What we know:
Blueprint: H1 3-16, E1 21-25, E2 31-35, H2 41-47, E3 53-56, E4 59-63, E5 68-72
Antiparallel strand pairs: 1-2, 1-3, 3-4, 4-5
Amino acid sequence: MTRDEDAIALAGRLAEHAVQQVELIGRDGTRRALHARQTDLPGALREATAGTRLFWPGGAAEVRADSITWEFDPPAH
């Protein structure tokens, strides 16, 4: 998958599991809280520099130069 495809897939997975808020941490340590349903999350991930990390309850992701990797353990309903 390409980085764009990864961004779309991750945003979809977060939406499927009703993740409301994510925290984006830039390589320089800058933190930004994003409301998943009010933000163009795929766009934010596409624009993020390599080394940016994303956290949410039950998971985390890392933006790489040509991909986005993530671990996701959604809470049981």
